[in-house]
Specification:
The complex is a heterodimer of chains A (about 375) and B (about 625). With about 375 residues, chain A is mainly alpha-helical. Helices cover about 70% and strands about 5% of the residues of chain A. Chain A contains 15 helices and three strands. In chain A, helix 3 packs antiparallel against helix 13 and helix 8 packs across helix 14. Chain B contains 25 helices and 21 strands. Among the domains of chain B are: about 35 residues; about 180 residues, Penicillin-binding protein 2a (Domain 2) (Alpha-Beta Complex). The chains are: A mainly alpha (about 375), B alpha+beta (about 625). The interface between A and B is large, with 56 and 49 residues.
């Protein structure tokens, strides 16, 4: 019902002032996207309950984080894109400053320096902020320029992207740094980067791969090697991939049933409620469950791209598009990892894996998308 | 680009570009999602079976349930091989945070050495899955277990496991009879039923333990269990209980065995005693023995070398593998051969001038008494162990008739039912010599053979067996060590038993027995010193086996050389003559004459077996302590 109302609205975006705006529009939410997200999160909680070994505490904890994340989404959606754009540089520079702080005095966690902590009050991962701040900064820079971007603009963008990415890579967190870079590159791509430059960059990237290899940490190289041949170290690094593939493969078409996955429940599967939750899904719900989740993700992406297209200004379009595509990259990298076609990188399955920070970041992203869609200056084009 | 002249944005174009790009992106998203879908289809449909098997293998572990090894008792029901719990220390690598620190701590607590730690690291690397425990040390003593318990809180992942281990309460005296179990080696593993031995670490290596391995081991069971990734068993899915090994009762009497071992008193030698009616081996001693328990826990290379290099050959089972010239103990059998072949009568008297001469030969074959025994009939010839009489018999019989008769008593072959590693010895004949040496038989060799020297080679077990057959008046029973296997009795008649020895006249047995009785109780008997106070009739025969040469590569100093060149002392006996209860063969290496150095041992043993009260036993022991110098072989 409300959706239909919205549809009418969207088809006549610049219509008269007297027209009554829908409830959703006044709330600055998109009902379809919200519905899809809530379905995903609900189904995700069901999977998480089983993946955590039927832990109600973990599941409720995740649910309450979802609550916080949804609230954050709602709040962000109330700001207009122009407001967000104004604040973007500040957020970006604070983020870079915090990354530098982490670099200088970051404490140790997970064998890597990623956290910034004010003891007893907050533990914060600056790289999480940068997942949004970097693409927004690029968009905030580009939207004023004439597009497609000129060479000079590209160089400036490279600088905007390069500084935080290098800092995150040094933490070391190769996965996040690549995802941040990826999000920013999507902005440039959507801004209309010419195919000639894209081709050139592709060639440059390919030739830079060996360089990347030699700059990797030993454990990162080990992950890549293990990915290429998991049987070489079946008890160590290869264990995760082998057990994950075994879990998924043994699930078959219909799965072993909720809470009945032997690989998951008997703990053969490592990190089963975080990064490898996709394998639990595959084992217990089978191919059907996997495809349902994939379909949800694709629908979210589709809806998101549509919303981005309805944006009125370039900043909103670019940021919205980038957020959605990055979201899909998370999905692809995670499922690719658990099914053994990509190396093991610490990327959670969005809105399903246990963990608060990434959910909040993701939903803030969707909040921006909703803001972009629902804040329209009622001006003729 | 050079001129910054375009501050006016082409918004419509931007929207167009964005639309095209986002459409392209959407297509890519669909393509990638399709790729993931295809990958999942491949894993979950195409390769589903493979991964199902793999996940089952992860989850379900088949654990062998090893059977407990059967116990071994002696004939009186005394335990001679038992299973004792032993404690092993294992480490689950995945539960240990700092393995080096833990190992250092354990080295402190238990006093481990570097090789044990290295062996652990190797085993730890060779594990098949995580959370599988690896052995660090076996055979913890109580003190070590207690120290571990106290330190348990700072040793996560370190566990003590109980396991049964074979133990022999009387290792020295029983070592050669029982043999021992040891860790299964690769060679054995290849020929074993791997299912039945999946959880078994030990196997019978020698002796009874090897002979009755199948019965003692039992049948392994198995259980299928569901485990989690840490290897913890969550529940049992299926169980087939093991069938424990059968208990074994031996024919050996430990008391008699102990006595026989003590009687040898540190000398090299062997004593075998057999119950004639049944073929039960009552005692079978090879001295010196060794501590078979050392082989169970794993003997160190150094200790093994020192056993190997020991000139007294403690690892060598003299009772069944030791080959000795039969000496004068051949004479009763030879007398029977002569009677049966009709070359002599019991009454025929032969004059002994102190030597025997072959026709057309000037060489003198001497009696042990230089001036001769004069007129000698069969009974006296046995009693005084007259050589001339038996030279004559051997000459009259010829070597082939003599040896073919000896075969009937089990010489030259293995007749025992269940004795591991028995040797067949040698019975010389013309054909044997031709085959072995490519030489003709010389008449003089027949004479040597007639007094048991030359090529004869017998084992103590063969000698005792022949003596038992003699005592039985030719009735054959197979000597054996097992009396009962589980609930099944091992008793005659046995399959493949040799035919009984038949004589034309039954009274000839008595004629020979009379002569043998006179050995012990006659006025002139070679072993008359042991006849003092004898409370039953005993038939005996002494013997001396000449030591011709020493083995190569054996080094002796002068005194030892002299000792090692001395003759072996032999004595065979059975008693009581009318109703034989025990047949005995005694061989004491390099002891000198058999009558003086071996006869007393046989008497003491027979006393122990036949007379229950201790007084008589003590008397017998005193008898052998007296330094009685008796002439004769």
């Amino acid at each position: 019902m409300k959706g239909l109302e919205w549809r009418r609205f969207s088809r006549a975006p610049a219509d008269g002032m007297g027209r009554k705006r829908s409830l959703w529009s006044r709330l600055h939410l998109d009902p379809w996207l919200l519905l899809l997200l809530l379905s995903l999160m609900g189904a995700g909680l069901v999977v998480l309950y089983s993946a955590s070994g039927m832990s109600l505490a973990v599941t409720l904890g995740q649910a309450s984080r979802f609550g916080v994340a949804l609230l954050a989404m709602f709040v962000i959606a109330q700001f207009s894109p122009s407001t967000l754009c104004r604040w973007t540089p500040l957020g970006y520079f604070i983020g870079v400053a915090m990354l530098v702080a982490v670099e200088v005095m970051g404490d140790m966690g997970m064998g890597a320096q990623r956290w910034l902590e004010i003891p007893g009050i907050i533990r914060f991962q600056p790289s999480e902020l940068m997942k949004l701040a970097v693409p927004m900064m690029v968009a905030a820079y580009l939207y004023k320029r004439s597009l497609p971007p000129s060479m000079r603009d590209l160089l400036i963008c490279a600088l905007i992207i390069g500084v935080p990415v290098m800092l995150i890579m040094r933490q070391p967190d190769l996965g996040t740094s690549l995802l941040v870079a990826c999000a920013a590159v999507f902005v440039i791509f959507l801004a209309g980067l010419s195919w000639r430059v894209i081709g050139l960059l592709a060639v440059l990237l390919a030739s830079a791969l060996p360089l990347l290899w030699f700059n990797m940490h030993e454990y990162q190289r080990q992950r890549v090697l293990t990915f290429l041949n998991p049987e070489s170290d079946p008890l160590g690094a290869g264990w995760n991939i082998i057990q994950s593939k075994t879990a998924i493969g043994s699930g078959g078409v219909f799965g072993k049933g909720w809470g009945l996955g032997t690989q998951s429940q008997l703990e053969f599967l490592p990190e089963r409620h975080t990064d490898f939750i996709g394998a639990v899904l595959g084992e217990e719900w089978g191919l059907i469950g996997m495809l349902v989740f994939l379909a949800l993700y694709v629908l979210i992406v589709g809806r998101g791209l549509f919303l981005a297209n309805t944006a009125q200004d370039t900043f909103g379009r670019l940021v919205g598009g980038s957020i959605v595509l990055t979201f899909f990259i998370y999905v692809f990298v995670n499922i690719g990892m658990v099914s053994g076609i990509l190396p093991v990188v610490g990327v959670p399955l969005p809105l399903v894996s246990f963990g608060g920070t990434s959910s909040v970041t993701l939903l803030i992203g969707f909040g921006i998308l909703m803001s972009v869609h629902t804040h329209r200056r009622l001006l003729p084009r | 680009m050079r001129k910054r002249r375009d501050p006016i944005k082409d918004t419509a174009r931007e929207v167009r570009v964005f639309r095209a790009r986002s459409l392209l992106a959407a297509l890519l998203v669909l393509l990638m999602a399709g790729g993931l879908g295809a990958r999942l289809f491949y894993l979950q449909v195409v390769e589903h079976e493979v991964f199902t098997t793999r996940s089952e293998k992860n989850r379900v572990r088949v654990e062998p349930l090893p059977p407990t090894r059967g116990l071994i008792y002696d004939r009186q029901g005394k335990l001679v091989a038992e299973n004792r719990p032993t404690y092993n220390l294992t480490i689950v690598r995945e539960r240990v945070q700092d393995i080096d620190a833990t190992l250092d701590r354990l080295v402190d607590i238990l006093g481990l050495d570097e090789t044990q730690v290295e062996a652990f690291r190797k085993r730890s690397r060779q594990r098949q899955r995580p959370y599988q425990p690896a052995l660090l040390m076996s055979g913890l003593n109580e003190r070590q277990i207690a120290r571990l318990a106290v330190n348990r809180y700072r040793l996560p992942g370190v566990e003590v496991e109980a396991q049964w281990l074979r133990h022999y309460p009387d290792p020295k005296i029983m070592s050669h009879v029982l043999g021992y179990v040891g860790r299964i080696n690769e060679q054995e593993l290849a020929s074993l039923d791997s299912g039945n031995y999946a959880g078994t670490h030990y196997i019978g290596k020698t002796g009874i333990e090897k002979q009755y391995e199948k019965a003692l081991h039992g049948q392994a069971g198995l259980r299928k269990v569901e485990t989690n990734a840490r290897g913890r068993v969550l529940r049992e899915l299926e169980r087939t209980p093991p069938e424990p090994g059968k208990d074994l009762t031996l024919t050996i009497d430990t008391r008699l065995q102990q006595m026989a071992y003590d009687l040898l008193d540190g000398r090299r030698g062997s004593i075998v005693a057999i119950q004639p009616q049944t073929g039960d081996i009552l005692a079978m001693v090879s001295a010196p023995g060794f501590d078979s328990n050392e082989f169970v826990t794993g003997i160190s290379y150094k200790d093994y070398q020192s056993l190997q290099d020991n000139l007294d050959l403690p690892l060598f089972n003299r009772a069944v593998r030791g080959q000795y010239p039969i000496g004068s103990t051949i004479k009763p059998f030879e007398a029977l051969a002569a009677l049966q072949n009709g070359v002599v009568t019991p009454q025929e008297v032969i004059y002994d001038p102190g030597y025997y001469k072959l026709p057309n030969d000037s060489r003198h074959y001497r009696n042990w008494l230089r001036w001769g025994h004069g007129r000698v009939d069969l009974e006296r010839a046995l009693a005084v162990s007259n050589n001339t009489y038996f030279y004559t018999m051997a000459h009259r019989l010829g070597i082939d008739a003599l040896s073919s008769f000896m075969y009937k008593f089990g010489f030259g072959e293995v007749t025992s039912l269940d004795v591991q590693g028995a040797s067949s010895g040698t019975v010389p004949s013309r054909e044997w010599k031709r085959e072995k040496y490519g030489q003709v038989w010389y008449p003089g060799e027949t004479l040597s053979a007639g007094i048991g020297q030359g090529y004869w080679m017998v084992t103590p077990l063969q000698l005792a067996t022949a003596e038992a057959t003699l005592a039985n008046r030719g009735d054959w029973v197979r000597p054996h060590l097992a009396k009962r296997v589980g609930d099944t009795s091992v008793e005659p008649p046995f399959k493949n038993t040799k035919p009984d020895v038949k004589l034309d006249k039954d009274v000839w047995w008595d004629d020979v027995f009379n002569g043998m009785e006179k050995v012990v109780s006659g006025r002139e008997g070679t072993a008359r010193h042991i006849g003092k106070g004898l409370k039953y009739d005993m038939a005996g025969k002494s013997g001396t086996a000449q030591v011709f040469s020493l083995g190569q590569n054996q080094k002796y100093d002068a005194d030892e050389l002299k000792e090692r060149l001395r003759d072996h002392a032999l004595f065979t006996a059975f008693a009581p003559v009318d109703d034989p209860q025990i047949a005995i063969a005694v061989i004491v290496e390099n002891a000198g004459g058999g009558s003086s150095h071996a006869a007393g041992l046989a008497r003491a043993l027979a006393d122990e077996w036949l007379l229950s009260d201790d007084e008589n036993t003590h008397q017998a022991e005193e008898l052998i302590k007296e330094d009685v110098e008796v002439e004769g072989t």
